Amino acid sequence: MDLPVEEWRAHVHRRWRQLPSSAQAALRTSALREVLRHCSSLLQPEDEGFLQRLAEGFSVEKDPDACLLYKEEGNKAFLRKAYQAAAGLYSKGASHARPNTQEMALCFANRSAAFFHLAQYETCLEDIGRAQRHGYPERLRPKLMLRKAECLVALGRQQEAALAVRDLEQSGAAQQASTGAPDLQALQRRLSHLKARVREDTGPGEAPPLSVSHASEEVGPRAKNERIPGTSLSVSLRSDPSRGRYLIATEDVFPGELLVKEEAFVSVLNPGETAGLRRGLEAQRDGRATPGDCHCHRCLKPIVATVPCEGCSYAKYCSQQCLQVAWERYHRVECPLGGTLLTLGVFCHVALRTVLLAGFEAVSNLIKTVQGTVSSEAASVPDGQPPGQKLNTRPNLAESSPHGGASGVPIPGCDRDGSYQSSYYAVFHLLPHTKKHSPEHKFLCGLSIVALCRKLGEADWPPRAQGPSAQEAALTTERTPEPSVWAEAMLRHVLQLHCNAQGVTALQEAGSEGDLVTECQQVRLATGLFPAISLMNHSCRPNTSLSFRGSVGSVHASQLIARGQEILHCYGPHEGRMDAATRQQKLRSQYFFDCRCQACQEEEVHGAGVTPKQGGFRCPTCRAALQGLDPLGCSSGSCRAQVSRAHLLGQLGDLQQRVEMAGELLRGDRTARAVQLLLACRREAEDFLTSEHVLMGEIEDRLAQAYASLGDWPKSAAHLQNSLQVVKAQHGPASVEMGHELFKLAQVLFNGFAVTEAVSVIEKAEKVLSLHYGPENEQVQELQQMKACLRELPSHPGEPTA
Ligand SMILES: [Zn+2]
Ligand SMILES: [Zn+2]
Ligand SMILES: [Zn+2]
Ligand SMILES: [Zn+2]
């Protein structure tokens, strides 16, 4: 999804292999302008045609048939009383409807009915307004007005309700003669009923119904650091030749302290399974929601009722405001390019949006600085500088600033007064590592950017508002030997993203609607650039946790960080999830460095594979732990058993497959069968795996899930206790994984009314999760609500304990 689609990559690979070696050699250059000049002369009309055909395979255009189909599916779900599903289907229908048409109005009106049944009255009112604005048919109006009045009554807005009822009566009288009115008699019965309710209710109005609780707006770091926007005063920027730029703690930082809170400079929503967007595929029609359907394409917040772009079926927003801001800042350029952007991948899309957000002036000034001061932009980057570190071409005059490097060397990316800029200036100075990318990769990126710029040229871009110089620059794009500044900046950003892209994640509920225990998983929602967060270096054993709320990233200390210690976060390869060799390989290929973090150094000393973090094997004879590499020998002195590694791995693989199968059964609601299979798996696992083995934990966790769906809370809790032990051994008692497992246990105990135990587990979960995510986190808030709810219960001495 980051890179272009497979077919385009394969096409460019074929083109690369056909290039004469002289052309291939020319692309070894690290000067981006040179790369673009070559790519520009190499991109043929056949290539553009091929890309165009691929782009046409992604449907981002509005399709009236799809609109009708989704609306009908929505109606079916509505009749089944599956209102949440119906709302989702109407949303999909609306995204395919053209603005100001009856179809659009009907999708919104029907969706308002679904929200009405979900008791989401505010959202229902908004949708009624949308239906009216898009031309809801006059003959159906009374039905809609009645729903509006009912919402107002439910919200306790009596005066508005009374007005709505009066309007309704007047228009109802006018409708009397009309034949097309929907079931007029039933309507009138409901109307008189409603009138009675409005009259009855003369008091101050009932309390509005509980809607999804909105956590209080997050507060920033304790004290703001003026020099590095978004960071706390306990943080300072340093730089040295071996580590490049990095952050340290200027005072002791306690676990849970908020260190950085930063809004993405740019972020682009991950399209998810692009297969689902391919034209003609069944997947497009099945109504499954992708992250792009339930999160705002601008602010990334979860959406209840989407507001679709009026030009395409792809972009959706949480509000009219987000739609407008997105349109003005970037989507008016992106909208007609929908299919091309999906074909070229998220990195190209982020690169385009970055320059659109920065604006022509900022982009061209920085590109000119680079061109003017150094002939090859990488010439000033010292070789061997660690990745993620950024170069500055503008001299930094603040050598005596407290943020100066230890050696007095100015810190790249800081402006004249020594402050780090969380702006395009900082983004621009993230390192593109042009020397380290292979020539073929540069060819792929360069060709993609040149093709994108030509499409932009066709679309008469940039918009005229940006003045003649901007237009001149863009219209000379690529056909002439001078690549435009836009192209050069975009190529730079695509290459930077390789090392500096930050995945924006969100917790998504994996279970189905109505599950009492939510099974959450981290999903990658978007890709963005965060100038302050990207100042942190990597460690496979980080001392911070990174979490997101929409497009805002927060870094909390996950342990005590002593004054002077480096603040570290994990780029992905974490010691709890991967062995050292896999981590090193990943870091080398993506980030171009060898990790020397504490975890990696320890594993180097003790040797890999002796004490696997994932848990070990047991002796088949005496059940003591096995040790050694191959064959493994029994650790008990009296036993001489030996087992080959291949045998154990085979057995483990078989068992893993059956655990997977049980997962399938659970998802297919064949719970009893799943329990049988899992219990059998557990018996087998006990024979050859230690009790801390990761697969053992997985079996226990699935058993807990199965019993929870059967409503057997005590059994579910017992299995979760077992899986907690595994998680604790593997990730540590204060780990975020522990927090998630405790959260599940809290839900199970809560549902089972095991009050005392539940409160104690809730408190533990709250402590661990707020340490990693801060007190405003949704799960933390939910735990607090659960606790409040339990405290209100009269205590029963004879309560069942799980
Ligand atoms: Zn939004
Ligand atoms: Zn659009
Ligand atoms: Zn490491
Ligand atoms: Zn033994």
TrEMBL record:
Boundaries of every MYND-type domain copy: 296-335
Entry's Gene Ontology BP terms: heart development; methylation
Localization terms from the record: Cytoplasm; Nucleus
SET domain ranges (all copies): 233-572
Catalytic activity from the UniProt record: L-lysyl-[protein] + S-adenosyl-L-methionine = N(6)-methyl-L-lysyl-[protein] + S-adenosyl-L-homocysteine + H(+)
Pfam families: SET, zf-MYND
Feature: compositional bias, Basic and acidic residues: 215-227
Cellular component GO terms held in the UniProt record: cytoplasm; nucleus
Region entry Disordered, spans: 198-236, 377-412
Biased segments, Polar residues type: 390-399
Keywords tagged on the record: Cytoplasm, Metal-binding, Methyltransferase, Nucleus, S-adenosyl-L-methionine, Transferase, Zinc, Zinc-finger
GO MF term set: histone deacetylase binding; methyltransferase activity; zinc ion binding
The protein's role, per its UniProt record: Protein-lysine N-methyltransferase. Monomethylates PRMT5, modulating its transcriptional activity. May also act as a histone methyltransferase. Plays a critical role in cardiac development. Acts as a key epigenetic regulator of gene expression during cardiac development via its dual activities as a methyltransferase and negative regulator of HDAC1.
The protein's name: Protein-lysine N-methyltransferase SMYD4
Top-level taxonomy: Eukaryota, Metazoa, Chordata, Craniata, Vertebrata
